[in-house]
Amino acid sequence: MSTKELQKLETIQNVCDKRIRQIDASKILNLSRRHIQRLVNQYRQFGANGLISKKRTKPSNRQFNATLKKQVIDLIQTHYVDFGPTLATEKLSEIHDIRLSTETIRKWMISVKLWKPRVKKRRKIYQPRARRDCIGELIQLDGSPHDWFEGRADKCTLLVFIDDATSAIMHLYFCDSESTFSYMAATKQYIEQHGKPVALYTDKHGVFRVNHASNKDRNKLTQYGRALKELNIELICANTPQAKGRVERANLTLQDRLVKEMRLAGINGIEEANEWLSSFIDNYNKRFAKPAKRQLNVHRPIYETPQELYDIFSWQTSRKVTKSLTIQYDKVMYLIEKTLENEHVVSKNIMVHDYPDGQIDIKYLGQSLDYNIFDKLERINQGEIVENKRLDAVLRLAMVEQERLESEGLRERSRSDTPRRQEQRRQSRMNPVMYDQTK
């Protein structure tokens, strides 16, 4: 007997034993008094079996007839054997004029093993984590791509720094995308304003960790990770988005409030927004920031000079100097100045610094080396000495070939182990005085 039938049995027994009246039993079971009388008669005649539903183990009166089910299954096996239930339902309705619910088709396909039901994943439970005690102990960092200017400018990304102890916004920075130089520029502004935090808490974006499948690359540092290591700032990658929920929730709030505030303020671009954001941050923190458990700011002061910061927040790549005092970096050959002092760097590994403002510096043991640029991108190769009478034709051919190289992107820089040039150009244009040092 089912749980409902067991409850019904207990109530009818009480009626038969005159513990309660039939009118009381009707209220308990939400049935009419006449139906209670029928149940009492069934119980007295057949006992507990008289209260069991007679429809049990019998097919429903509302089910589709077997002929229709067989017809539908035959059609699916013949024409739609690899279709899902939803698509199969649409085709049966459009082509064969058989209108059934998707759930009915799904159950019929499962019964003949034409469809394997998906197992619903068990919902993970993420319990809240206690806040850190001090300001600057853990800074949650995340990028939020969104149409921040509501069509008044191109879509862009907002880099958000949230203090874990107070939920206060420490820094905001608009950029084109979540690139290494974008995070470097934002982090440089952050530490110049607040100092060095103990740790940054981020996701598993390729800017923060090497996501290659090979085990030998797992322990390598990214350019951003290398910069934080030189600054003695710990970088922690969260395993799930829920682990850094404070910055994730702040992104939702900013996508609502910040968009409207910039509309009211008439902000129509990245440059204007980055200059205006400080006033918004102050107002936001007055409303939403919470007091820390301990009134202690653990941000550390910056001891690095502006030149050292300029070097740290650059894209650094090692290259080996050839016997002819040359190196290749990003499809460009660099000719190191031929001097007595530079001859000892032959066959040595030197460091190429690619700065956010587009400058290139070549250093050996911290000392800059003078160099000239010899562009090694794909060129026209005549392969023979050209006579004067053929010079016009060769030049015309060279112009056509150069246009082809430009249109096909063959003269663009490599992006395998070098920064995005577009991001460099944007940052240099947006804030040419972002760095105090120039090369």
Automatic annotation (TrEMBL):
<feature type="domain" description="Integrase catalytic">
    <location>
        <begin position="124"/>
        <end position="314"/>
    </location>
</feature>
<dbReference type="InterPro" id="IPR047797">
    <property type="entry name" value="ISNCY_transpos"/>
</dbReference>
<dbReference type="InterPro" id="IPR001584">
    <property type="entry name" value="Integrase_cat-core"/>
</dbReference>
<protein>
    <submittedName>
        <fullName>ISNCY family transposase</fullName>
    </submittedName>
</protein>
<dbReference type="Pfam" id="PF13518">
    <property type="entry name" value="HTH_28"/>
</dbReference>
<dbReference type="InterPro" id="IPR009057">
    <property type="entry name" value="Homeodomain-like_sf"/>
</dbReference>
<dbReference type="InterPro" id="IPR055247">
    <property type="entry name" value="InsJ-like_HTH"/>
</dbReference>
<dbReference type="InterPro" id="IPR036397">
    <property type="entry name" value="RNaseH_sf"/>
</dbReference>
<feature type="compositionally biased region" description="Basic and acidic residues">
    <location>
        <begin position="406"/>
        <end position="426"/>
    </location>
</feature>
<feature type="region of interest" description="Disordered">
    <location>
        <begin position="406"/>
        <end position="439"/>
    </location>
</feature>
<dbReference type="InterPro" id="IPR012337">
    <property type="entry name" value="RNaseH-like_sf"/>
</dbReference>
